[in-house]
Amino acid sequence: MNLNDINIERCIVIQSAVVTELHGFCDASEKAYGAAIYARTVTAAGEVKVKLVASKSRVSTIKQVTIPRLELCSAVLLTKLMDKVQRALKMDITSVFYWSDSTIVISWMKKESRDLKTFVANRVVFIQECTEINQWHHVPSEQNPADIISRGLDPERIQQSDLWWFGPSFLQESLVNLASDSNDIHNSELYQRELKNNQGDPVSLLMQDIDILPIINGCSSFVKLQRIIAWCVRFKENARNPLQTTTDSLTAPELSASLFCLVRNVQSVYFSKEIQCIKKRQQLHNSSNLLNLSPFLDEKNILRVGGRLRHSNLPAEQKHPMLIPNNNPICDLIINHFHVFYFHTGIEATLANIRTQFWIINGRSTVKRVIAKCLKCLKLRPYT
């Protein structure tokens, strides 16, 4: 038998279907990697039909590459192929699912790109922009039809392969089991190999699992808050390297790093929807307070104001100040800091000084509210 003898049914969906899903599978080996997509349709009576829609393969590079990297390349290939299939079908798709038998690749997708090395980070960013992480699921290798692409199969056997033409058996069930794989791969050498050494940003490592809002509430000044976070990081670094402890005064880079961590933490709480939209290159919702500010994420994942000031000769901090929500304690600390530092200036002067570094939402009314509580200004304010 040769390829010309293989018959392929053109009809892939049930006309009376109430549910239409696309399931994509990807896999890789040292020789090749590929992806296959299946349409799963279900009628009101519960009849299920699964058919192969499209597949694509690539020959692995001559240069020796690890299997997890090739698996990641197959995930990128699947993402691109799924986009083409959805645009070509021109029909209402109920749900889209992506399947991989690589727990390492799925774990990479759950990480921030800044924590990964360049090769992996670039591909993870593409996948995160085009798909949702909750659309990715683990499938055992023996049930992965894309495994046939990566390892090859002769025409006689592929004609008789139900796995290839109709996908894994669990797609035929009335309800697809999406139970996630529980294997812990974080200690895997291949997984760890692609992670950056983040010692250059110790603040983020310290704070990523800590809610700093209670710390903010307990501080009376912005400078004190910065120094507390910086000293916490210093303590952690000294405990990690007891033979190379640092006892000098806090350095400017340490204070700057603590500032970025504070802002990033607050932004992740109050601007989470906007940050997700920007990461996926989507339009902000019309109700967003940031819609007219052209916000963007810098290399430190700090949300900043965009706009035409980027063409000016101002310093970078002034052209693109960091965005601060107006309904949180750190905002009040920042306003009080600038108000006192510049000798109790008025509303306009305080706001102008703040905007050299920060952009507070509804800044003028917020500054007015905070300054109105300043006791020294109340004592010296003339009676009206």
Low-pLDDT regions: 198-203
Strand content: 5-15%
- Give me the strand/helix succession: EEEHEHHEHHHHHHHHHEEHEHHEHH
At the fourth level of CATH, the homologous superfamily of the largest domain is: Ribonuclease H-like superfamily/Ribonuclease H
- Characterize the main sheet: 5 strands, mixed
Please count the beta strands (DSSP E, at least 2 residues each).
9
Q: How many domain units?
A: 2
The first-level CATH class of the largest domain is given as Alpha Beta
> What is the percent of helical residues?
40-55%
Query: What is the approximate shape?
Result: elongated
Gyration radius from CA atoms, angstroms: 27 Å
Order the strands across the largest sheet as they lie in space. 3-2-1-4-5
Structural class: alpha/beta
CATH architecture verdict of the largest domain: 2-Layer Sandwich
Q: Count up the helices.
A: 17
- Say what the CATH topology of the largest domain is: Nucleotidyltransferase, domain 5
**Mean of all residue-level pLDDT scores:** 86
Rounded to the nearest angstrom, the distance between the terminal CA atoms is 99 Å
Protein name: Integrase zinc-binding domain-containing protein
Organism: Araneus ventricosus (Orbweaver spider)
Domain Integrase zinc-binding: 332-380
